[in-house]
Amino acid sequence: MSDISRVKPFRSPTDEAPLARWSLTIGVIALLCILLYAPLAVVFTEALAKGAGAALKSLTKSEASSAIRLTLTVAAVVLPLNAGFGVAAAWAITKFDFRGKAFLITLIDLPFSVSPVVAGLCLVLLFGANSTLGGWLVASGHPVIFALPGIILASLFVTFPFVARELIPVMIEQGRAEEEAALTLGAGGWRVFRTVTLPKIRWALLYGTLLCNARAMGEFGAVAVVSGKIRGQTATMPITIEMLYNEYLSVAAFTLAAVLALLALVTLTLKTALEWRYADQLAATHRH
Amino acid sequence: MHIEIDEISKEFGRTAALHPVKLAIPSGALVALLGPSGSGKTTLLRILGGLECPSTGRVLYDGQDATGLSVQDRRAGFVFQNYALFKHMTVFENVAYGLRARPRNERPNEAEITRRVTKLLDLIQLPDIGSRYPSQLSGGQRQRVALARALAIEPRMLLLDEPFGALDARVRRELRQGLREIHDTTGLTTIFVTHDQDEAMELADLVVVMSMGRIEQIDRPVDIRARPATPFVREFITV
Fold first, then answer.
1. B94 to chain A: nearest residue by CA?
2. CB atoms within 10 A of CB B44
3. Chain B residue with minimum CA distance to A199
4. Do the Cβ atoms of A193 and A167 come closer than 8 Å?
5. In total, how many domains does chain B have?
6. CA of A190: which chain B residue's CA is closest?
């Protein structure tokens, strides 16, 4: 009977030893502080280094406000387009069997594997004033390169995979049975999409769109190549930040950077708020 | 409705799921497609419902060629293996789906939809579950809701894919009885797929035994028991 006292307290087989648990947790928090929170804090302290007044004043300058306007315009155009393209691509890949499907999936991933600068250069070669197409576009008064259409094209290319990548695994897991059921009940394709598919994928669609938004607002490389960095005209927020920083206008640069970071934080807050608001619904759709 | 399957075959890539099969189903019959997995029974059912396109052959509804008819125009009430209820809709909305999906000029008004859905929920003996979601139902209840949803479109025939597959033995027996009753009240030509020979023999008027994409025997249950046509049938029904 004396053996009983030596039996160790039961620990679940999936639990780690306390030492491992604590050191992992501390390690992760330390890493997050160095890589994530510290830079964010630096951005805001540098922006406010000469007081809130100076920071706000730098935002009222025309180049800052036009950069903000441009970035928001680009995001507003890119988001709905890529949400649409992403849904269409994911729908085609998961609901139909056809030749060249694997190739299409590779094509969707292409923007992730190609350097954004290369993507920008390709657009310049295709639409630049020296190409046939570009020459005609410039002559007809609709230049693409060094203008808004080029920036939108570059952002579209770079952010294309986000929505599709988010949707494909979800749609594969859900299968086609509910769609087939709707068809046998007499619903047409559009009604099936609207009443059955869309409600099932709306969370994945939201996540994909938020990721797409963050990248569209923050994209630097591809946009830097196609925009020509014309101050007050084709300089987006990230590009304006770089130009201001190179001119040692650190308050202006960091204030704009802080605004960009705040825009990202707003999207993140929005997502968290939606998750909190619809927690029951999320749990219900994940239950099988 | 009288259904005729005329030399239907189906290939998926290079593999033949169905060799040309021929089958006539009399109007109002309750028919079981019986066979082990991979015998082609589900493929045949999906071809009847218009969810799969045959590689060769024709499907005739009441003597009329229906091979090219779209899945929506076939008006086949289909009950899927895992029921495929719309998880984000209440039971009421699930059952009402087929009515709301009708073209505007044929769509019943809200009061009429409520009346019909209530009637169907009474028919499946679950009158009080309209406001629940599918995740809140038991397996047997889900199956019955799927049946009500299929009946809501006033189908020309009823097609069921392993309707009792994922249920425990007692619920299966109850639901078998339920399906028999619904078949007898509606008089619909009903075809169900099963791998369970007891189920087929007990419930169906006519049993179609299938194996490897071919039909081995078509007969009444008593005749299949008394005179199995091939060694496969003999072995399959004695197991």
1. A182
2. 28
3. B88
4. no
5. 1
6. B101
Structure tokens at B21: 């099969």
Q: Which domain holds residue A31?
A: 15-47
Which site among A95, A99, A185, A200 would you substitute to test the B interface, given the most B Cβ atoms closer than 10 Å to its Cβ? A185
Residues A90 and A181 occupy one common structural domain: yes
Check residue A287 and give its pLDDT.
43
Q: Does residue B32 contact residue B207 with C-beta atoms inside 8 Å? A: yes
Q: Are strands B189-194 and B157-161 parallel, antiparallel or unpaired?
A: parallel
Are A287 and B135 an interchain contact pair (Cβ–Cβ within 8 Å)? yes
Q: Please give the single-letter amino acid code of residue A17.
A: A
Split into its structural domains, chain A has a count of 2
* Binding-face residues of A in 191-250 toward B, CB within 8 A: 191, 195-196, 199-200
Q: Could you tell me if A157 and A80 lie in one domain?
A: yes
Long-range contacts of A38-46 (CB under 8 A, 24+ apart): A40/A261, A43/A254, A43/A257, A43/A258, A43/A261, A44/A254, A44/A258, A44/A261, A46/A250, A46/A251, A46/A254
Mean pLDDT, rounded, for B26-31: 94
Give this complex's ipTM: 0.91
pLDDT at position A232 over 50: yes
Confidence of residue A283 (pLDDT cuts 50, 70, 90): low
Residues A42 and A56 in one domain: no
pLDDT at position A2 is: 52
Structural element, H or E, at residue B24:
strand B15-25
Q: Do B135 and A284 touch (CB under 8 A)?
A: yes
- What pLDDT was estimated at residue A14? 79
The percentage of chain B sitting over the pLDDT mark of 90, rounded to a whole number, equals 69
Q: Indicate if the alpha-carbon torsion angle A273, A277, A279, A285 is positive or negative.
A: negative
| β partners of residue A106 | none
Q: Which residues of B touch A185 (CB under 8 A)?
A: 97-98, 101, 149-150, 152-153
**What would you measure as the largest C-alpha separation in chain B, in angstroms?**
57
pLDDT in tens, A118-160: 999 999 999 988 888 888 888 888 888 899 999 999 999 999 9
Mean pLDDT, chain A, integer: 88
Interface probe for B, chosen from A184, A192, A202 (most Cβ of B below 10 Å), is A184
| A–B interface: beta-carbon pairs under 8 A | 67
Two structure tokens written together for B68: 């090219």
| Residue ranges making up the domain that contains B51 | 1-75+195-239
Query: In this predicted model, what pLDDT tens digit does every residue of B139-161 receive, in sequence order?
Result: 889 999 999 999 999 999 999 99
Q: Which of A218-222, A273-277, B14-18 has the lowest mean pLDDT?
A: A273-277
| pLDDT beyond 90 at A162 | yes
